[in-house]
Amino acid sequence: MKYVLVTGGVVSGLGKGVTASSIGVLLQACGFRVTSIKIDPYLNTDAGTMSPFEHGEVFVLDDGGEVDLDLGNYERFLDLKLTRDNNITTGKIYQSVIAKERRGDYLGKTVQVVPHITDAIQEWIERVAQIPVDGKEGPADVCVIELGGTIGDIESMPFIEALGQFSYRVGPGNFCLVHVSLVPVLNVVGEQKTKPTQHSVRQLRGLGLTPNLLACRSSKELDDNVKEKLSQFCHVPSSSILTLYDVPNIWHIPLLLRDQKAHEAILKTLNLGGVATEPNFKEWIATTKVYDKFNESVRIAMVGKYTNLSDAYLSVLKALLHASVACNRKLVVDWVPAENLEDDTSKEDPDAHKAAWALLKGANGILVPGGFGDRGVQGKILAAKYARENSVPFLGICLGMQIAVIEFARSVLGLHDANSTEFDSKTKNPCVIFMPEGSKTHMGGTMRLGSRRTYFHVADCKSAKLYGNVHFVDERHRHRYEVNPDLISQLESAGLSFVGKDETGKRMEIVEFPGHPFFIGAQFHPEFKSRPGKPSPLFLGLITAACDKPVVPASKGYTTKITKGILGSHSPMLKAHNGNGFKSPNSSLNGVYTSTTANGVCVDGSC
């Protein structure tokens, strides 16, 4: 097994995730099988209990693991199915070591950070690297490891020590270190400054790790004299110093690495030059060129509570992008703070209220994503009502589906106090209730998580057609509330159709409003399994309806086809890849264009 470690210096948020993913793509293009591991030094066992303001969205895996959003990036970029063990945290490591101590595995010894914690980290990496995640038998050829945080962080120290020991254990021909650093350009002098990277590398070397490659983030390509200076002070060959500068869309990043011969430097370090093939990026280049030429756009109003933090909806944005690319449209996301749609805001801030409604009414489609808590719920209900009554394409995910049901109960059934017990535990008409198997005392890992099967109960519904007329689908879940089964007959008699249910037939998974161009709610999170070239069927349905095009039933197996003229089976866009990445200079991020939000803050989207 060969290992590539990606670390970061100077500041966080430089794009270690997209760098690691792009390296993986580059190695795949050279004919190697790749797996990925993300190390997060925080003490949390997993990301499940953290606010999106802390680390962005919580990504959910098939096995129910609640993990860092970078693992979603790896899955999409490299087309992998990772496990919860592919995300290492300080909490998991300490938990495993303490469990061993309690069992008596270290009987008679003093349990210490070195060697017990560092050994546990190394053993975890070696064990997980052997797990196949690409659908093939046997372990991968290369494991790409991303160390979260910044070199010098106190919480990272045990991992850095462990990785230093690990590099010695596996040997120089089996370990390659890529250090991502910042080379800022000061506006006053317009000069690229190397001192931050010099200090970062010096600190890294002082901790026992020596970089083989430098990946320098900058607003423009590094000058030759800057590379020479970095080479001299950082002891890295200038040919191994890469520039990762701002690009129009994320698909350029692996091409940047290839053009700078990053694969040659990595393969040389790993002694893989003799068995590698020349990287094949023919389809990737076609994808990049075609996307850059898109002229027509599709506008989607994202109605949520974290609209000033696009990472909170990262997978949703990527799923929207995958679908819009398949429809040959440039995606424009209008961020609509749900609170600003509410009547109270019309009194407190009439300008924000007016702007929010203008964005909502100007969109081609409306999406209400998942979430927790009661802030902005009334605004989401108003958005669902507007979409239902005005035939605007609508997709509600998780909480968004529950919102659609609550709105229908209030507006159509006349149950004006209909609500979720999450927001009003004393409501007389609970449309959404706490699931009986859930825990009310422990929050972490107690939701209905991971891949669950949904059976279609209405063969002629839009959702079944989008999924290819299959009898069931497996999608990922993350929720602790569900639609009240006691109200189903009443809701369906009034016009709603619960077309998808779980294996018991009592838990609602998909709801539709027949007669509407596209009004669908899903209890699961379809965005987590969306892939470039294979967009989520429900997202593809939303974008197709937003483009005012009819949806054609798909062939079995998730490959959704759109009417002729939108997407042909030989379209080069079918093989597109993307990942979390770098801001472009033309007011877009990763290919998603956004407008000013209703609260006056301009927010960039992420594909």
From TrEMBL:
Report the residue ranges that make up the CTP synthase N-terminal domain in this protein.
2-272
Entry protein name: CTP synthase
Signal peptide stretch: none
* Keyword list, A-Z: ATP-binding, Glutamine amidotransferase, Ligase, Nucleotide-binding, Pyrimidine biosynthesis
Keyword Nucleotidyltransferase assigned: no
EC annotation?
6.3.4.2
Which reaction is catalysed here? Answer: UTP + L-glutamine + ATP + H2O = CTP + L-glutamate + ADP + phosphate + 2 H(+)
Keyword flag Lipid biosynthesis:
no
**Limits of the Glutamine amidotransferase domain:** 309-543
Which organism is this protein's natural source?
Answer: Phaseolus angularis (Azuki bean)
Xref: HAMAP family: PyrG (MF_01227)
Q: Which family does it belong to?
A: Belongs to the CTP synthase family.
